[in-house]
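FYI - complex with uracil, inputs then prediction.
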Amino acid sequence: MSRAGSPVLVVDGGYAGWRAQALRALAAGWPPEAVTWAERGSAACTGTAQLMLLDAGPAPMAGDDLPSAERQQAVGAAPMVRVSKALAALLQQAARYRSPQRWAFLYRVLWRWCQGDRAVASPADEDGARLHAMAKSVRRAHHDMIAYVRFHRRSSGGSPEYLAWYEPEHDVLADAADHFARRMGGSSWWIGTPQGAALWDGHTLQVSATPAGAISDAVPGIDVQALRAGAAADDIEPLWLAYYRSIFNPARLNEAALEQHMPVRFWKGLPEGRLIPAMIADARNGARRVAQAGAVGTMRGKPVAVNPEDAQPLRPAPSSLDQCRRCELWRHATQAVPGHGPQTARIMLVGEQPGDQEDLAGRAFVGPAGKVLDEAMRRAGVPPDSVYVTNAVKHFKWIARGKRRLHKTPAQREVQACAHWLEEERARVRPAVIVTLGATALGAILGATASLRDYLNAPARLGDAWLVATWHPSYALRVDDAGKREDIVSAIAQAIAKGRELATAAATAPSPPSPSPAETQ
Ligand code: URA
């Protein structure tokens, strides 16, 4: 309802319509509280006795540009209002914010600006803050629409070839349609929304404010109900769903991050959205089982001796690293990371466990510690592709710190569980020299915890092979002092060079070379 006697300004055509009316209201000197705003077709518009339709002809409002004299003449009585480019952009964005008060609010902002009140464009001002929040919400809705519209190819063929249904939060259909028209080239498509529809025939874009149901009557063969209900799957959809299922890693599920990036309200419009709740439930159940097992293990009580074979049926031993369930680390890792290098390598380098990047890449020492190791090998004159590189533990153990996965040292039982794979690699490659990087690798090779310092610069016999122990490359990444870092890299390089020397000697000498080393089993 308008205030008694106050003019009702009818907005027709979104921002452009509002702008035309607002400029004329300014020219008439009407303050915001003296006018009522309505949208064409709204109840406020149709049911009002005092309706006043101002001439909605073209009216300028520049960013930073001054009007040319001819242009001002052409628009007659409409004044030229100068607003900053930033404010012009905010007004245009906020005009797409779906709210019955938007036009009155935008006029208040414009009025204040024209009164010289520049604070109105600042987020520190109450109106300014609301304007910025509206514009932000519209930008978000535009982004969401581009991200979450899913086209279905029409099985019946014909034009438009692709159909989509989407329910945007604000009036962003025209902008998003413009984006798709630029991106989808000559393919024809139709996007329906409850407020209007967009049709691209490969050359021309038509955006209509007529509700999609009505429009679809004019476009033969579009079943809006089926699209809305997500029942318009095409023959590509099963492939997409299979792919989506396969890239979902329950071990890495972070529900809060998932819902932040893909809010739940969009799931119903996405084919893959129907899979998500079940995939989350499966992942949760798995995680709950692990948590429970841990809790049960720490409960006090009288131990009851049970023969493990009676308690659990024998399961076949895992035949590949991928299937390994010898400890719990597989649950939270992306994949097991095997060693790599020539099967005839004379030197084997053993690290601790894959890091974040190795876990994702499936290859040992590709992250920052790998760079240090490469540098040490370069200094030692040992080509990286001549050595076999592996880790004591094959799954990444980590703890979450915000969005980061931080390395956590594996427990002794995890090192022991993984010894199976390290032994298998040693038996297969039969290196002449094993260079252990850090204390975990040393302990894994010795089969017992040992003091790294006791083994530094002291190669030891290990059956047929030599053991050369040195620092872990990530130690160099943790120290702040550049001199200390250099010492560590150079110590690793020296150990690798020593390994090369021992491997060369072993290849030429029938018996263990001197100097006589400490004997280690
Ligand atoms: N640290 C390791 O011990 N191994 C890797 O593969 C990477 C970092």
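The chain has a mean pLDDT of 83. The pocket of uracil is lined by residues 351-355, 358, 364-365, 367, 369, 391, 474 (CB under 6 Å).
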